[in-house]
């Protein structure tokens, strides 16, 4: 992991005030102004938070892989809103197909300590998981830098002030710094530069995916195939559409993100679409799901196109279980695998 001698000199409580303490004498008055602080918890492979719509409590799912913030149609009706499906809004698109979208007026929305009033929000004619009232996506998160400390139950949106090139991993001297592509156009999430077996590509960081997965074409370019010894059937992937995508689980010698190297790793692989042109601008070859995210403290610097990651419990790495937890296909009569969802961007 990369190490730097420049770090924030204050504890977290001090960091989230504005103005903020200087990082160091030669770094000027660098600080992080809080936009939002949101307590979260893990439930069934999802990052869950609480909020309100029109004063009524709602259950929020955080999904950095979704470009839009969405209310499921059933939830809109449950909240006694007035939803309308509109052909002009197009369709939400994701793994397995599409779903109709619409619009609904909302008097007020609160998410953590953030509030907005008098807005139209988009709805999706799709079940997004048990008791899901709101899917919080990149149209919200991309407005500031995003800190993901899911293992410790906290997500923050921050704005750096006077930080220039100062590293923003304030919690540790040890971190990996990674190039990041921002959500833009048909890129629906933050994408980090990673490598499998030395083959480099972009991977989307997706809190909406319970486990990480790799495009089959990328696995092949990295030298891993479904006919290799030790390959087993993976759980099917289910997304916004009705079609299930079959997967298989293969072993890669190493996974690299910045200065962090994990070896060996087992990952779920499938043909999720888009492999016809791996060089196109919006192509991403992997989803870095919640298994990867919960094992790291992550700062996504949307303000500068960089990400900072610290692998948690690094001193005890020899005793740590695998970071990636691919779901195997259900055995006959066994318990069902955890569902995989990729509620998508929408056109």
UniProtKB/TrEMBL annotation:
Keyword Membrane carried by entry: no
Keywords in alphabetical order: Hydrolase, Protease, Signal
InterPro entries, A to Z: Peptidase_aspartic_dom_sf, Retropepsin-like_bacterial
Start and end residues of each stretch annotated as Disordered: 322-347
Biological process per Gene Ontology, one example term: proteolysis
Pfam family, one: Asp_protease_2
Compositionally skewed regions (Basic and acidic residues) per UniProt: 338-347
Signal peptide: 1-24
CDD domains: retropepsin_like_bacteria
GO molecular function terms listed in the Swiss-Prot or TrEMBL record: peptidase activity
Name this protein carries in UniProt: Aspartyl protease
The organism of origin for this protein: Nitrospirillum amazonense
């Amino acid at each position: 992991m990369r190490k730097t001698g420049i770090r924030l000199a204050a504890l977290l409580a001090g960091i989230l005030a504005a103005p903020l303490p200087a990082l160091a004498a030669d770094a000027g008055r660098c600080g992080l102004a809080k936009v939002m602080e949101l307590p979260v918890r893990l439930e069934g492979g999802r990052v869950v938070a609480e909020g309100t719509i029109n004063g009524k409590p709602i259950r929020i799912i955080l999904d950095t892989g979704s470009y839009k913030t969405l209310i499921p149609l059933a939830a809109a009706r449950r909240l006694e809103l007035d939803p309308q499906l509109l052909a002009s809004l197009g369709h939400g698109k994701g793994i397995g197909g599409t779903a109709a979208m619409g619009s609904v007026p909302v008097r007020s929305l609160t998410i953590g300590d953030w509030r907005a009033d008098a807005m139209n929000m988009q709805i999706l004619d799709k079940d997004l998981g048990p008791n899901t009232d709101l899917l919080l996506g990149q149209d919200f998160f991309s407005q500031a830098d995003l800190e993901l400390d899911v293992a410790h139950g906290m997500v923050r949106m921050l704005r750096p002030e006077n930080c220039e090139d100062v590293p923003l991993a304030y919690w540790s001297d040890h971190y990996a710094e990674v190039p990041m592509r921002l959500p833009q156009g048909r890129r629906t999430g933050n994408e980090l530069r990673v490598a499998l077996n030395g083959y480099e590509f972009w991977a989307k960081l997706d809190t909406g995916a319970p486990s990480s997965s790799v495009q089959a074409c990328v696995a092949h370019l990295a030298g891993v195939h479904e006919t290799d010894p030790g390959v087993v059937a993976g759980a099917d992937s289910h997304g916004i559409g009705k079609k299930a995508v079959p997967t298989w689980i293969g072993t890669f010698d190493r996974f690299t993100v910045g200065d962090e190297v994990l070896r060996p790793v087992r990952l779920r692989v499938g043909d999720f679409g888009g492999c016809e042109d791996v060089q196109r601008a919006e192509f991403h070859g992997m989803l870095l799901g919640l298994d990867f995210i919960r094992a790291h403290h992550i700062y996504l610097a949307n303000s500068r196109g960089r990400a900072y990651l610290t692998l948690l419990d690094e001193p005890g790495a020899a005793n740590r279980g695998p970071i990636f937890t691919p779901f195997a296909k259900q055995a006959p009569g066994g318990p069902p695998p955890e569902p995989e969802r990729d509620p998508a961007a929408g056109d």
